[in-house]
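Page header: ASSEMBLY MODEL / two components / 470 residues total.
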Amino acid sequence: MHPGEILWTVVIGFLLVGSVGFFLSIYNSLVESKNNIGRSWANIDVLLKQRHDELPKLVKVCEAYMQHERAVFDKLSEARAALAKAAGVAQRSDAENQITRALGQFFAVAESYPELKANQSFSALQSRISELENAIADRREFYNDTVTLYNTRLEQIPDSWVADGMNLQVVELFKIDESERKDVAISFKMSA
Amino acid sequence: MGDPRGMLLSVFCTLGGTWAFVQGFGALRTWRVLRDTPTARVRSMAMGMVELNGQVESRSDLVSPFSGRTCVWWEVEISTLSGRSRANSNWSVVHKKTSGQPFYLRDETGVAMVYPQGANVKVNFATEEMTHGLGVPELYMQYMDQQGLGLRRMWALGAMRFRERVIEAPQRVFVLGRAFPRAMTREVSFSDIEVAVTGTDGGRRGTATRQSERDEDVRGVIRQGSGAEPFLIGQRSESELVLEYAVRGFGGLILGPALACFGLWCALELARAGGWSF
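Prediction written out in full:
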């Protein structure tokens, strides 16, 4: 074999192994990114389920004190039912926002019941739900970060070439409720 | 027969280039994991691959061997000068040791525990001292005695380099690793007999209780996942690490084959000049 031929064989070998390896690494990392989205979503679901399980306990504790607040109980119950029925990211995020809103109203109404606020079970449930709300907010943010990174990759070259071949689609972000974006009206009552 | 150094250099280039090419794939994988993993908060981190940013806090009383600094992690490295002449010499590492004690990592939402064994720690050397024969300071000699380094007397005759790097509280670090649930702990009480006999537990009970209380707050444990998964701890920012791995990955994939082909070309030319046939 001529030395030139040996050299060209090695050059072509490197090019072949390099290109195949490079595109395989893109393929594998896209699969990994896609699975990361699924995992991030499942991680939100775990917390939503935990919060979902806390709601009947909350209602049970508050019923005796808030007998004249049927409307807030109903809203909470509706939101819980909506979450149970929801499928897909859009519906789940809507239902999740509905529960957050209903819980906000619930705790706002509960503020006017001093005896309820003094109840230890209520305060324990309130802090547990608030802790879960914070964790859900963090994981929602994390999910959106994961989705954004993935969606960006689907549009970047050369990842987009591989993604097109795999028929990968852009994933929807977990939307934040419009009411959570609005400015909160704060008014001070000045004493004379 | 020609100069064998030329042939050796060619073979070295060919093998080195191939090695850099293979390493490039590993760096590329770490680059992708770094880029595709968003930073989580300790409070809500899920088990699995995580990326965290936070301040380190010590869990045990750890002092670095060379500088005597109180730290959460240390690594020491002893090297000797090898080579035929000063101009043509390089340092070869003859001893390397790393602390393995876990430490806490706290962000604004909670605290996690980090087991640094197996981590690729990206911290610069904070202490570096060189000796040039017959004058190795007592501190280093004592350390080498403790470690049972049999060749220490011989090494001390030539030039030596002692380096140490540390992570001190409350430095901010970046951690990329696998999160596991915190192990369930059971408190083991100190022997009451020891207290009865000596009247003291040497302060261990207090330290253990404080440690146990803090361990209760830990949201998860970050440590090395499976062998192929990256585990990084660094003082540099994520963007700097992403850049570093991109350079290493793409550099290895492009320059590695170039070097290997150059080495091979040189080897073939030398072989042809030497009258070898293929």
